[in-house]
Amino acid sequence: MTDLKQAIEGIAEKHLPDENHFIVAVNISEKTGKKHLNILLDADEGVTIRACAKLSRAISEELEANEIMPDAYVLEVSSPGLDFPLSSKRQFDKNIGRELKISLTSGEDIQGKLVEVTEAGVKLLAKKKKEKGKKATEEEVPLLFEDMKKSIVQVSFK
User: What is the pTM assigned to this prediction?
Assistant: First the structure.
């Protein structure tokens, strides 16, 4: 299955609309006797339906031309939803200035505004715990990617 996943990921990378687009994940599952291919596409300035459709057609054509998927399959190309965890530096870069909730490998959760992304990790502007009788303050908290288990963008309806 990993060879198939790598082949599909290679095909998807080759047919990206431009350098602003990138693949977040390729998932293969089997339901009711058919393989389901789910490809998550993201872009530095957002993904359009047109980009998803174009990539879907290109992948489908190549899969069939090279007989990579001889049996019936379902192909879905979409953008990751807001609840999909950030998984690459590039995704963190495009979310600078937004509120994140990060679950750490230590079991702790930290929430704050993403202010910086480096090769090794991120910096969040997080609220310090309020001391009695004092105003709440914020501090920059550096976090390494290796210490993060899950990072979700927090949606605000203010």
Answer: 0.79
